[in-house]
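Handout, page 2. Input:
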Amino acid sequence: MKKSTSIIAIAMSIAATEVAGAQSQYHQKAEKNPFGLVYEDAITENVKGKVNIHPVTYKLNGIDITANVYTPADYDPSKKYPAITVAHPNGGVKEQTAGLYAQRLAEAGYITITADAAYQGASGGAPRHTDKPQYRTEDIHGMADFISQYPGVDANRLGALGICGGGGYTLNATKSDKRFKAVATLSMFNSGAARRNGYQNSQLNTIQERLKQASDARAQEATGGKIIYAGVASITDEAIAEVPTRFYREGYTYYYRTHAHPNSTFLYTMSSLLDLMTWDATDQIELINQPLLMIAGSEAGTKYMTDEAFAKATGTKNKELFVIEGATHIQTYWKGEYVLQAVSKLVSFYQTNL
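Output:
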């Protein structure tokens, strides 16, 4: 076991050094868009009378957070608008699907904000790619802090949307943060359960081994040693084709090919597993008493996570599970027909509850 752990650690350490520039050939969209946006029909310039994007920065617990605020067409700061926070997926950044949904909701009349998580993307914090539930949850509280004070925002009509891992963290944040009056998730990913048990509970037999790896990584960090990373820094087309699960195969294609962004990566510090593996998005989920909408694709390999969380959310009298027929997890990020269905449902939900 020690030899296996050492080999894994070395391989992941080497992989981490490949991050910079390894996928530069796939970043053309980000380079061409003045705001670095990589989704289809993204804003390329701010035009009076249309939806505009406003890059902003703010401090959260001493860390610089980089975010984008989207304002509706004919935005008038003297008026009052409902607002929505959008939390991005694991490994994602604000310029990808979180930005797409933020833009679509702004087109429907909402002021929206999506921020890069602390320690990730263009936001500050070190070690880079730290991915701890308490930090990701605090990111959502921080978005609420900032957007509630933004000109034109009606702080009494604040909603939340979380996508993938951002969905699990949004559930966690809104258990206690009652500034949020309506809560929605899209393709929710329970990061704690997945890191602990594996995707579709495929790693139950290696929990203790992986906890030991995380503990060793933390010990190495504490003595000033090199940061050890889990995850994938880069991947070849051949390797993508050989990935056995559709979820990860489509995920690699999305993040490293069709919607690649230089700030986006599948890496996270191995030591983060100490926190991730002892956390669960559904713990005390009954504390959510706000209206709750959970959206998932019928063909998503992660749908079981949404189903489990929805069943446990017994504290709200107003909840709905909306299934997009034919959609996989990753397809809800970008595929037009599925995005349209999700946005339509979200707009109806927020109009009713904000």
